[in-house]
Amino acid sequence: MPQTHHYHLEKLTDIHSKILGRDTVVDIFLPFQYEKSNKRYPLLILNDGQDGEAIHLKQTLERLTHAKEIEDVIVVGIHAGDRLQEYGVASRADYKGRGSLAKNYSRFVVTELIPYLEYRYPISTHTRDHAIAGFSLGALSALDIAWHHADYFGKIGAFSGAFWWRKRDAKSRFYSEYRDRIMHQQIRRGRFTPGMKFWFQAGLHDEHSDRNKNGVIDSIDDILDLIVELTRKGYRPFHDIQYYEMKHGEHNLKTWAEAMPHFLKWAFERRL
Would you say residue 150 has pLDDT above 60? Predict the structure, then answer.
């Protein structure tokens, strides 16, 4: 592969977050000789950055860049801390108390990490060039962060998102799909932001559960219902919203690695 399409990986291990109260680890994938360029680069923040090697992120970036299918992009992979507490919805924990630190994690990303990245690296100032993505709980977190900071993030990528996140146990006789799914309610009560775009991925084998016995697994039901809420809000399917369903897709890194090129080409398609 020509040298000009190589990405350089910087691992930052000395970033202490006052908000999270712990040291954080961040992988930063940088385009070849970015420091000698006068351009500013699109930014992708990726939850579960510790999985970058497992999903072949560096090789995928290099292959798509070499093929001129995507723009050069700066990708920042945040290694997860306590996933069950730091990932979630900032406004409230779920019915088991999970996601209790999601608000702190969101604040870390927006008020600590991003200002540091913008100071250190030549990042585009355009909202349309800023994306955030994640897998499973990391996808729930990514959507929550983007939804509340639409002035900064213009694109969101959700791989097998944990959009079942709910206020009440689904086994409760008082459970309601309409009232108790937290992200759906948040979208319903939120405001439309022109230009914001969403990319959802799901696999037909993400899980086996089917709460409402309609023949569709819950993870897909939850995503499709979320798309309905976004559509009602004013976002347009196929224009603002993309849904990528994988026939043999499972809830694992292998599937998400296969889906990653599709997301990257959607988010950072090379401009002519």
Answer: yes
Q: Which CATH architecture has domain 3-268?
A: 3-Layer(aba) Sandwich (3.40)
Largest Cα–Cα distance of the chain, in whole Å? 62
Where are the domains positioned within the chain?
3-268
Radius of gyration of the chain (CA): 18
155 in Cβ contact with 268 (< 8 Å): no
Please state, as a whole number, how many other Cβ atoms lie within 10 Å of the Cβ of residue 186.
20
Q: What confidence tens digit (pLDDT) does each residue in 153-188 have?
A: 999 999 999 999 888 887 777 777 768 889 999 999
- Tokens read off for 109: 């990303």
- Cα–chain center distance at 16: 23
Count the alpha carbons within 13 Å of 151 in the hemisphere toward its beta carbon.
2
User: Does residue 134 contact residue 159 with C-beta atoms inside 8 Å?
Assistant: yes
Tokens of 130: 């800023």
Q: Which residues pair with 242 in a beta bridge?
A: 199
% of the chain exceeding 70 in pLDDT: 97
pLDDT for 215: 73
